[in-house]
């Protein structure tokens, strides 16, 4: 066994060249060059696969960035063109368009006095009955506080439901959908 191990070592020394020297010429030299070529090809394919993986990762990151920048909320049945998904269109939707002037200041109304008018109150409430944020309503901070107080007052007095829009508003919206030809 020891003699066999010694012969394998001598064989590998003759086949595997040392650093900086020419490979020894022997009958296995062609086998050595084929194995070396296979290793080089394997390394090249691994390098190409790694490059492809890195490119895919970069592409996925770009897609994630685009998804995060896509601020338009699509609803069921919305029709869009491929251009609508472009970066230029998404940039337009990224800018939230809030009213430039306060509606109550423009009409010189006090929001606190409008607690009986559920159609005005429902404009400043979400579908689930939450008070909309000032970034959505476009009201000045003073009027935002007043409208919030008016909504809470109307709910407290029982003039408005606290968990959804007023039934008359929902009915008007349903009628409008029917007139436009949408399914109710």
TrEMBL record:
Pfam families reported in the protein's UniProt record: Ribosomal_S18
InterPro entries hit by this protein: Ribosomal_bS18 (IPR001648), Ribosomal_bS18_sf (IPR036870)
Record-level GO BP terms: mitochondrial translation
Transport is among the record's keywords: no
Assigned keywords, A-Z: Ribonucleoprotein, Ribosomal protein
SUPFAM superfamilies in the cross-refs: Ribosomal protein S18
GO terms under cellular component: mitochondrial small ribosomal subunit
One of the record's GO molecular function terms: structural constituent of ribosome
Family: Belongs to the bacterial ribosomal protein bS18 family.
Protein name stated in the entry: Small ribosomal subunit protein bS18m
Organism: Polytolypa hystricis (strain UAMH7299)
